Amino acid sequence: MKKISSSAILLSKSETNEEIYGHGRSSSSLDNTRKLQDIVKQRCRPTSHLEIGEALGVFDQVLDSNPKPPVSSFNSLLISVLGTIKKTHHQNPNLIISLFNKMNWVGGISPDDHTCSILIDCCSGMKRVGLGYGFFCSMIKRGWTVDVVALNSLINGLCKRNKVDDEAKLLDKMPQWGCKPDVVTYNTIIKGLCSLGAQQLSSLRR
């Protein structure tokens, strides 16, 4: 498959400026936003292998657009970047958090429960469980739906920190949030238990 270069898919600066600042701003700006949404859909497919540099270029243009695309476009970009970070062991796993902070700084974008799930997954990968808990609590406070994917990510982060007691507490509370543990949940907890030494396992039995 022929690789699509970032220059081939990103809107040029002149085109972007003309769309946003030129005459007939309303319709032109909407057209520009739709083009960017189409780019995100095209390049964020699982088979597209979006590279970090290209993703950041698309992200900046989406962030600068007016009106802003729906939050789902930003979520797609965050998922693609996170996927690339996991595959390539990128040296800056904090990149997802930085992009999220940029979204908040610009304004006009309302994160949703899916955004928080992505951030929790990112924090778990970085072993920053406390920050992941913060995003999780934000979901609860806002009354958003807590799904098993977000909880599995949080449990995975606890597993990496050998916090088996906390894993068990989350497992017990899952029904309160309308979540049913799945095979990923149990496999993650089993993995956590297997990573403990004999002395730690003995202390759990007590």
Cα-to-Cα separation, first versus last residue: 58 Å
Low-confidence stretches: 1-25, 201-206
User: What is the helix tally?
Assistant: 12
SS-based class: mainly alpha
Give helix % range: 55-70%
Could you give the count of β-strands? 0
Tell me the fraction of residues in β-strands, as a range: under 5%
Q: On the 0-100 scale, what is the average pLDDT?
A: 80
Tell me about the biggest sheet?
Answer: none
Overall spatial form: globular
Radius of gyration: 20 Å
Question: What is the H/E order?
Answer: HHHHHHHHHHHH
Outline the structure in words.
With 206 residues, this protein is mainly alpha-helical. The protein has a domain at 1-111. It is built from twelve helices and no strands. Helix 7 (113-125) runs antiparallel to helix 8 (129-141). The longest helix has 19 residues, at 25-43. The protein is globular. It starts with 5 loop residues before the first helix and ends with a helix.
What is the gist of this entry?
By secondary structure, the protein is mainly alpha-helical.
List its salient traits.
disordered C terminus, globular, mainly alpha
